Amino acid sequence: MVRLLSILAISAMLVGAAGIYGAYRHDLAAARVHASVGSRIVQTPCGPIEYAEAGEGIPMLVVHGAGGGFDQGSYFAAPLAKRGFRAIAMSRFGYLRTPLPADASAEAQARAHVCLLDALHIQHAAIVGASAGAPSSMLFALENPERTTALVLLVPATYVPRPPNQSPLRTPPGTQFFFNTILRSDFLFWVASHVAHRAVTRSILATPTDVVESASREEQERVAQVLESILPIDPRRLGLLNDAAVTSTLSRYDLEHISVPTFVMSTEDDLYGTFDGARYTAEHVAGAKFLGFDRGGHVWVGHQEEVLSSIERFVKAAAGPNTLVTASPTGDLKAGDDIETHSRP
Q1: Model-level pTM?
Q2: Does the pLDDT of residue 168 top 90, yes or no?
């Protein structure tokens, strides 16, 4: 850490050069535009909620992870919006233009999901919760089964039994350091992402760097986009702090009473350790389907198309026989099929 801090300090001094500083200002301005264009704010009994939507078809509420916002959710959901879904990507409490209320618990977030769907006059929807967006998504499905077409959990922050005093999630080396330093400043984050890219990928995206470096160019660009989407940090800071509090005290939900079609995905090398919790959840939700990979990290590098196609098939199958289900290379997926797979290097 001392060495890394020294590198960042020296780099910060060098960034005083006009050309480099100009690049930072350009990137930050572009990030601010990206985070402020294309969304709307709706007033609800749960407070103002920012969202964006695209596509037509089965309503799908996309609940982003830590460091996100509607923009992160929209980026993920864009391909699904072209596959027969009306994708609604929201900004959770404390992210971008959705304020942080006094009660920003997972339970309150689940109520906000209901408020948003009510405001949009949507009675039924699939809900996709990624990472720190999983707890509220699970509670939404648990408390509103009659409104939940399907529950999809991706690398979820969820409970799993651990030895006493151990958190359900792991903290990769350097994560706490980065959280206390570069995630407090747009400038420091920008410098670190350029100078210590490998360390940032491991600590923030919780993904082994060799997995990214051996991936296709398209996948490398996707990872870079996910990392870049954390900028600007300031309007996401309160959400990040709240997510840290929520995910550090995860409790066991009443999994056995989740009665909606459920799909869970994770990777064994996710440095946040979501694989054990994902499998535990799938094992205790009746009829749940589990898709596991041995490599891919927290952003499932190398498996984007398989994950998207699996979500598409699963949600369309859960929506009913009148919904077109796209055939996969291995055949159609029925609501009762088991789709657990493991990729190999």
Answers
A1: 0.87
A2: no
